[in-house]
């Protein structure tokens, strides 16, 4: 079956309003763009002529969509964005609920004929859950056409937030949750008062533990929490900043990191397992493990005492372009319709 002409995808969008501001919302947009750029037919609404339903959320309506597909003898591609590990250290009570969350997502993902998750690391986590379905790993991708460095955008960012040309600006992006490393971000702002620290993102403070609420409400002259901003504004922020500081403690990939690399901004991240094997310390990026390491590396990078590595980082982001993701998805869709194919895996596609 030639995917580009005869397979039709139901790109299910149920529940997206709830997670529009999250990485899952961005991942859905990337999938939509990938299908468009590679000529795969798709619909966002239910129709009887679809061949595969593609799910991204674990809400009950997604489960119903998967069950409906099975009744209609359609195929199910389930994107596994969430794990128990990245559910922990998020909202009030998340650690207590984590084992139950694990059972629920295992049930959801097992409804898929194939499961796609963003990285080899998240694939290995899911395999440890005892999921007996084919699990593939494929990056969420990055839109290099949109995230294209523009110096004028950077100037607009600095003008809006009243940063002087000489100011050194450190940014991060994410929800106000412990897992994202927000407490360390605030601590580093206090340790390095000569640099500006700005965190983009938003979470209802009623949903987070007191320690995170306290961190967000910290008053420092060089610490800023403007809240959620649009993708266009975020692009401006990347272009106008001097360092992307990503202190997350657990990820399945981290789309915002790909965005920063695509826009050629130096990046410093926490050294965690998800980035092993594809992002290497002092080759495309800088990695740290402690506050002391982060503080030293921030100073070294912003003083120009170490290479910026921005071109190397951009090359790594380019390996995960939307176009390449689309081509990989076409191969996966075709293979869904070949159950008789034998071998260790019947899915022929390039891991990205």
Automatic annotation (TrEMBL):
Segments forming domain Glycosyl transferase family: 157-312
UniProt domain Glycosyltransferase subfamily 4-like N-terminal: residue ranges: 47-145
Keyword check for Transferase: yes
GO MF: glycosyltransferase activity
Pfam families given in the database record: Glyco_transf_4, Glycos_transf_1
Keywords assigned by UniProt, alphabetized: Transferase
Record-given protein name: 1,2-diacylglycerol-3-alpha-glucose alpha-1,2-glucosyltransferase
Organism for this UniProt entry: Anaerocolumna xylanovorans DSM 12503
């Amino acid at each position: 079956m030639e995917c580009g002409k005869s397979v039709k995808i139901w790109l299910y969008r149920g529940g997206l309003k709830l997670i529009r501001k999250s990485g899952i919302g961005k991942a859905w947009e990337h999938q939509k763009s990938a299908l468009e750029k590679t000529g795969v037919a798709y619909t966002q609404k239910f129709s009887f002529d679809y061949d595969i339903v593609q799910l991204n959320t674990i809400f009950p309506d997604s489960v119903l969509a998967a069950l409906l597909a099975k009744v209609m003898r359609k195929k199910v591609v389930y994107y596994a964005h969430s794990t128990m590990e990245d559910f922990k250290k998020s909202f009030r009570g998340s650690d207590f609920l984590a084992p139950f969350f694990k059972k629920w997502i295992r049930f959801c993902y097992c409804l898929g004929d194939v499961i796609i998750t963003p990285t080899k690391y998240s694939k290995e986590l899911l395999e440890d859950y005892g999921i007996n379905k084919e699990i593939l790993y494929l990056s969420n991708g990055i839109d290099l056409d949109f995230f294209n460095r523009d110096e004028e955008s950077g100037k607009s960012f600095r003008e809006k937030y009243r940063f002087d040309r000489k100011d050194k600006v450190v940014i991060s992006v994410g929800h106000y949750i412990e897992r994202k490393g927000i407490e360390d971000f605030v601590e580093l702002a206090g340790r390095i008062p000569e640099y500006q620290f700005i965190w983009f993102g938003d979470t209802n403070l009623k949903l987070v533990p007191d320690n995170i609420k306290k961190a967000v409400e910290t008053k420092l002259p060089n610490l800023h929490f403007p809240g959620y901003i649009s993708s266009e504004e975020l692009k401006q922020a990347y272009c106008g900043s001097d360092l992307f500081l990503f202190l997350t403690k657990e990820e399945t990939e981290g789309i915002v990191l790909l965005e920063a690399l695509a826009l050629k901004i130096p990046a410093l991240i926490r050294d965690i397992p998800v980035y092993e094997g594809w992002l290497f310390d002092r080759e495309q990026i800088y990695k740290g493990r402690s506050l002391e390491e982060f503080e030293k590396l921030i100073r070294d990078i912003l003083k120009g005492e170490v290479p910026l590595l921005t071109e190397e980082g951009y090359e790594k982001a380019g390996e995960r372009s939307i176009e390449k993701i689309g081509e990989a998805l076409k191969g996966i869709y075709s293979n869904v319709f070949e159950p008789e194919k034998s071998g260790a895996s019947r899915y022929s596609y390039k891991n990205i």
